[in-house]
Design goal:
Belongs to the bacterial solute-binding protein 8 family. Keywords: Signal. It comes from Prauserella endophytica. It is globular and about 60 Å long. It is built from twelve helices and 15 strands. 46% of the residues are buried. The chain folds into two domains: 134 residues, 3-Layer(aba) Sandwich (Rossmann fold), CATH 3.40.50; 124 residues, 3-Layer(aba) Sandwich (Rossmann fold). The longest helix is centred in the middle third of the chain and has 20 residues. Helix 5 packs antiparallel against helix 6, helix 6 runs parallel beside helix 12 and helix 7 packs parallel to helix 12. Strands 5, 6, 7, 8 and 9 form a five-stranded parallel beta sheet that branches.
Amino acid sequence: MRRPLPVLALAATLLVSGCGAQVREEPGSAADGYPVTVTNCGQEVTFDRAPERIVAYDSGIVETLFALGLGDRIAGYVLPHQRDIASSPWREDFERVPNLGVDTISKEVILQAGADFVYAGWNYGFREDTGLTPRHLDELGVPSYVLSESCRNGNTERSRGIMPPLEALYTDLRNLGRVFGVSERAEQLVTEYREVVREAEATVPEDRPRPRVFLYDSGTDQPFTGGRYAASHEVITRGGGEHVMADLADSWTTTQWETVVQRDPEVIVINDYAPTSAAEKRAFLESFPPLRHVSAVEHKRFLVLDYAELVQGPRNPAAVRKVADYLNGLGGY
């Protein structure tokens, strides 16, 4: 399916000379190899030229654009509760790029920013109940790209994830590299991230036990956590842990406290983001009666990671090393 850029996009620049006007092809024009077609969530999407005004939602998505060197093409970003800016390796980029100053993305925000491309995901900005979906943007003439971690997989009405989490990261880097004409940079990043993960895995002794690990995101009545399609799954498993929710064929979803207790995690990873602090989340876990005899709580084994380290994004590979270092430090526990 072809998604043409809206009329806001610049087609060419006229250069006036003594011989009259000439047309200078801008980067991303047909002369530079466009149109390009990529497969996103199982659907072929064609771009006639490289977008120039991106609106992006959530920290991992925005940081992916920064890693690709596309900061100058971001017309604005939306971060719920402005999370992860302070800890981001791209903090200076965040400060240079327009912050749209809202917690939610909407058609109005996108149009006001003059966007010709939206990078978001299901439950990462795209939601049927808010009327903001790729289909709705198509109707406005604004192309979009869906975060691969969030692709719907058909296991339930809203379950997400269609490939291993790190492969989703590499897929999106390569697809965006083609869309924006920065494929060489994308391949450099994929090579670099694969090496970071390989080196992290190499630190895990073959005879070291693999502790059972539960990821706690939020929730009191029911815990919100990551399944096998969330980036957190490979952050945990490649770091040498046994992910206790690996059987959930979803990315981010709810489970039951009874299930957590039955699987008796020996380590709990806490997803740190506002408005509830990691300290408050830990205090809840330590005071919640059903978890009193869970090994991780009894032995106070908690590892705090930033939100952007656990959702799909360029911080995932380094997070694998953080998990490996923590679990290696437990020894035989």
